[in-house]
Amino acid sequence: MRIKLINKLNDHLNECKIKYFFLLKKSKNSHDGDIDVYINFKNFYHLRKLIKKFLDKNNFILHHIIQYEFNSYSFVICSRKKNNVKFFNLDICNYYIFNGKKIFSFTGLKSEKNLSLQKIKNLNNEDLFIYYLLKSFAKKKFDLNRFNYLKKEFLKLNFKRLEYFFGLKDFLKLKNIFLSSSNLKFKKEFNYFRLKYIKNKKTLFIKELIRNFKRACYPVGLCIGIIGVDGSGKSTIINQLVDKLSPKYDESAFKKILLYHLFNPKNNKSKNITPYNKQPYGIFLSFIKIIYLYIRFIHMYYFSILPNKIKGQLIIVDRNHYDVMIDPIRYRVGRFNVFLQFIFKFIPKPDFTIFLNVKPDLLFKRKKELKINQIKSLVKKYNSYTNKMHNIKKINNNINYCLLYTSDAADEEDS
Predict the structure, then answer these.
(1) What is the model's pLDDT at position 270?
(2) Are 106 and 94 in contact (CB under 8 A)?
(3) In this structure, which long-range contacts are made by residues 308-312, counting pairs with CB atoms below 8 Å and at least 24 apart in sequence?
């Protein structure tokens, strides 16, 4: 499917009579990874119009756009046929920019046919090598695999272009590096090349500031909250979501999935906890606990969730402030319920919430910490509260309930 997308995009850009070429590695399997393309677009609106026309013509769906640099955009594209859904990252730029620094210009460079995809226009060998070498310096990638790839490509090149770009002194250093049998010289000279060709470049601060402001105002990541009574199967559902949405190529719209429990990073260690066995706090400690929880939730959003949403990542939260509002006794808050309900309304909400609804008798079989009447009351509270919520999906978790606990994953709690 990825090859078809590349060929269709190649045809579309040819029809539009715009200068372009792909930036695909030739000695590596071209069927994996993001699709990097240079397009000589005028501005973002020109590019968006160009890509939208391509998507509409070929029945692709645009999931979201991430602006990585002030001139670099990642279009996350979805292909859907019946139940088969695949995602592709189309990374487009008109100049190689890194952290607001102009690193490598594609203007005036020549293209040639890709060896594995004969039909498409790809950047020529020499400039493609320079591009990937500069990316290695920028992203601090000098592991053995990267070295072996660059060395293999270096030995195929016309050295005149490299000598022209780097100058005789630096070209001879590179030649000495890639003619050696190990990557030790590469590591030794790495900081020299990174300083000269990346760090010493001028940063365009105004454009970087505008880009960061836009990304903060329009984060493209997603935060999903999972709520429900203890024993409703939250951990199992989260494991299923992670399995389905794992950031593998052609499968997920997100490159990373982060898991949280309340306001802490979630780990895989299961704990048998009994929060209801502890007595609720009195007047003073209940007030302190409300303020503490409020601060922790606010801190979590602005220092963990929002920054990762800006990066385009998926965040799944097992229990959130909704659970505290619905069931404050679980968190030992015995007083000031009206105050809690008021200030917790100002906590930023998840983009989407999943409520796992299970019959009280089944919950009682799973966890007998509460009496059946208490569980019935709690389930009623959850249903009443979630009926008023927006962007929520209620899942009836009664069917095959016993199968949900083959892993015997237990909920966690932060007291």
Answers:
(1) 56
(2) yes
(3) 308/221, 308/256, 308/258, 309/219, 309/220, 309/221, 309/222, 309/223, 310/215, 310/216, 310/219, 310/220, 310/221, 311/221, 311/256, 312/64, 312/66, 312/74, 312/76, 312/219, 312/220, 312/221, 312/254, 312/255
SS3 content of the chain, % helix, strand, coil (to 5): 45, 20, 35
Instruction: Compute the mean pLDDT over every residue in the chain, rounded to the nearest whole number.
Output: 86
Pairing assessment for the beta strands 257-261 and 96-98 based on DSSP bridges: unpaired
Torsion of CA 335, 338, 344, 350, to 10 degrees: 110
Mean pLDDT of 68-78: 91
Q: Is the pLDDT of residue 74 over 60?
A: yes
Q: Report the 10 Å Cβ neighbour count for 334.
A: 16
Reported residue count of the chain is 415
What is the rounded CA–CA span in Å between residue 226 and residue 85?
23
Phi, psi of 329 (to 5 degrees): -60, -35
For helices 159-178 and 144-154, give the axis angle rounded to 10 degrees: 140
From residue 236, alpha-carbon distances to 51, 228, 264, 410 in Å are 39, 12, 18, 9
Question: Where in 26-83 does DSSP place strands (E)?
Answer: 35-39, 61-69, 72-81
Q: At what angle do helices 125-138 and 159-178 cross, to 10 degrees?
A: 50
> Which three-class secondary structure state does DSSP give residue 157?
coil
d(CA 161, CA 348): 54
- pTM score over 0.85: no
**pLDDT, tens digit (0-9, with 9 covering 90-100), for 212-257:** 898 888 888 999 999 999 888 888 888 888 887 776 544 567 878 9
Task: Tell me the mean pLDDT in the region 187-199.
Answer: 92
How many angstroms separate the CA atoms of 126 and 159, rounded? 8
Positive or negative: CA dihedral 42, 45, 46, 51: positive
Residue type, 39: I
Q: Which residue has the higher pLDDT, 34 or 296?
A: 296
Identity of the residue numbered 350: P
